Amino acid sequence: MAERKIFAGPRVRRVRMSMGLTQTAMAEALGISPSYLNLIERNQRPLTVQLLLKLASVYKVDLDLLQGEGSGVTGQLREVFSDPLLAGEIPGDQEIIEVSEAAPNAATGMVKLYRAYREQGARLTDLADMLAREGHQTSVAGTRLPIDEVREQLERRPNFFAGIEDAAEEFGRRLSAADDLPAALKAWLKSEHGIAVRTLPVHAMPNLRRRYDRHSMRLFLSERMSPFDRTRELAMEVALLALGGEISSELDALSFSTSEARRVARFELARYAAHALMMPYGAFLAAAQRVRYDVDLLRSRFDVSFEQAANRLTTLARPGAQGVPWFMLELDHAGNAIRRAGAQGYPRATFGGLCPKLAIHSAFAQPGHVLAEAFEMPDGSAFLTVSRTVEGPQAAFGERLRRTAILLGCEWAQAVETTYAQAAGGTSARVLGGPACRLCERQGCLARAEPPITRPLGLDEMVSGLSAFDFQ
Fold first, then answer.
1. N vs C: which end of the chain shows fewer Cβ within 10 Å?
2. Number of folded domains that form the chain
3. How much is the average pLDDT of 199-218?
4. Is residue 199 part of a domain?
């Protein structure tokens, strides 16, 4: 039987370099020429039995370390590539053997990285179990709540539904609302479906915004709502009756997994349709361009709220008749994201809306004031942001007012088309922020609230930076 040749050049080189030897010094100790050792290290000559024994005696090297498979790296690489994430990437063992023999240092690095990945996964699992034991409902993340599924579906697509828009414009032409849309909507409900609309005082309907009584054919609206919100509730009821087919068609196209998710999405699309009835696409786009997207002028022109006009701006994506691609975020005092709109142009992965420097947080200290600024990310991308607080249903004396804040934004390249660009300033006036602190690598940030998970902490007793969470 022919003797198996051992090509172990990278391993011999690794032994030499770990000892800080030159090729000349090692060759002299082994009794060979430097050129021959160079050929061995480049796998152009195999190791002879005499050289193996010489290496073992002179440098106390384990022979198994020089014989490939015995080193253990090949077996460890097999474990790495048996992971479901990498299964099928390498068809057989030969390529694994070649990698472990030709680049043992790189192979060892891959093994270490894989072990770190597995350890991190185990830690996250332990953290999830701990939170679950403490009462936090982490288990729903695997199956997703219906509202989570709806938000994911709606936020990853343009906030534009052509079928609903076309039907709403056609219905609006037949409605002939003139300057009194609420009266026209009430008249249509009464004449077409026999539904009467009444506004009830707080004591009669303390916990509801709207209630439809099928037996008496009456739609009750709470007096807690502003006139703008009452108009939207009316428009939603009309949309569900008059545009039900178009809403169902859009729901079918979205393909939700459960009937509950479909029900939640139907409500969201009814809200979309209500805005389309209150602010017809063509008229709203023309007015928006004419007033340079001034939300306050638009709300006055269409008799709607700031939130409704801002929301409508995110829907101007009709092919051939597009407006500035706005995105919108609504937060409460605690920073919880209540609503996002405008997936196209809203860089959710890099923007997030949770940077402490965003003006949306400052808006709570200046209720009703519009704050415009230029906001720059660590990668150099920039946005125009327009922030303002909005009020919820009317609170009675002694009740805590519900106040949220709207952030309306677009990429800085489109800011020149808006009335807010000049107030936001130029490049020198940009606010240097980032995504959520845990994802942001901006150095020296005074507002940093957490260290980034992407960098190790810079724990140096001799030096302290501007942030309490310095990192390397």
1. N
2. 2
3. 89
4. yes
68 closest CA partner among 90, 86, 93: 93
The Cβ of residue 448 has, within 10 Å, a number of other Cβ atoms equal to 23
Type of residue at 55: L
- The reported pTM is 0.68
Beta strands in 48-193 (DSSP E): none
Q: Is residue 50 part of a domain?
A: yes
Identify the domain containing residue 263 by its residue range: 146-278
Q: How far apart are CA 254 and CA 150, in angstroms?
A: 9
Sorted by sequence, the CB contacts under 8 Å of residue 280 that are 6+ apart come out as 168, 169, 172
> Is residue 157 situated within a structural domain?
yes
| CATH classification of the domain holding 219 | 1.10.10.2910
Listed in sequence order, the DSSP H helices in 279-402 are: 281-290, 295-302, 306-313, 359-362
The pLDDT-based confidence of 113 (bands split at 50, 70, 90) is: confident
Assess if residue 54 is contained within a domain: yes
Q: Is 379 helix (H, G, I), strand (E, B) or coil?
A: coil
pLDDT band at 461 (very low <50, low <70, confident <90, very high): low
In this structure, the answer to whether residues 162 and 271 fall within a common structural domain is yes
In a shared domain, residues 156 and 248? yes
> Which of 94, 109, 124 represents a domain boundary (last residue)?
109
Strand partners, 331: 337, 405
Rounded distance between C-alpha atoms, residue 172 and residue 194, angstroms? 20
Coil/strand/helix, residue 95: helix
